[in-house]
Amino acid sequence: MIQAINLQKEYNGTTVLNLPELSIEKGEVFGLVGNNGAGKTTFFSLLLDLIRATRGKVIINEIPVAKSEDWKEQVSAYIDESFTIGYLTPDEYFNFIGELRNLNTTDVKAFLEKFADFFKDEIVGKKKYIRDLSKGNQKKVGVVGAFMGNPEVIILDEPFANLDPSSQYQLRNMIKEIGKQKDKTILISSHDLDHVADVCSRIVILEKGEIVRDVQKTESTLAELEEFFTGVKKETSFIDEL
Ligand SMILES: Nc1ncnc2c1ncn2[C@@H]1O[C@H](COP(=O)(O)OP(=O)(O)OP(=O)(O)O)[C@@H](O)[C@H]1O
Q1: Where is the ABC transporter domain positioned along the sequence (predicted)?
Q2: CATH number at residue 67
Q3: What is the rounded CA–CA span in Å between residue 155 and residue 71?
Q4: Residue 118 resides in a domain
Q5: Tens digits of residue pLDDT in 4-26
């Protein structure tokens, strides 16, 4: 379980995240949606101890993240801003992550073979540095790296951004597949309600650092969220009337 308790982050005296109490249970596929600057990356960065909270704390499986490193074995993440392993090729990167996750090179190879369609022959076995790949391919490397070694908690910041539609579709299916395992917890941030609605069991909307909606996914909650985001109430469509 992941808990944020009275978690606040300020920059220059301005509060950008304020979560009095948030718990994410094991088995949840948790979608975090919000406009630019809402605080999504800040929240994930606090969870991963990449930045320090102004107040409050994060606890992952009973371990306070700012006080111990033991939670790191259970958690894997892709965060755009901190994905700076530019001077490695994808193969070097995957082997590096494999070592951290106690996989040997044969395990890593077998794992990567499962992603052949997703990589479309553009990533594995190539001599290009990650920094020289297209944005979408960089994202694929980062996201697949986060899946390596069967972590219990997977945190993905904007995993769908920059991917082409077929890759988005494939990634949705991968997340759904992993999300079926009851011992996994997956956290995803996105601007795109469609992706989040497709893969997540719970959806939270963040606005100016505060939670303004927190719902389990059902047909009616999806309509409500769509209305919240677009400001448009879903009427019977022209097509429905034909
Ligand atoms: N290092 C920093 N210094 C000052 N302000 C910051 C810093 N990092 C983030 N912020 C501010 O915190 C707020 C939340 O930013 P954050 O990146 O978490 O939003 P986000 O929801 O991930 O946005 P986006 O969808 O645009 O990626 C924004 O107002 C941002 O300007």
Answers
A1: 2-233
A2: 3.40.50.300
A3: 13
A4: no
A5: 999 999 999 999 999 999 999 99
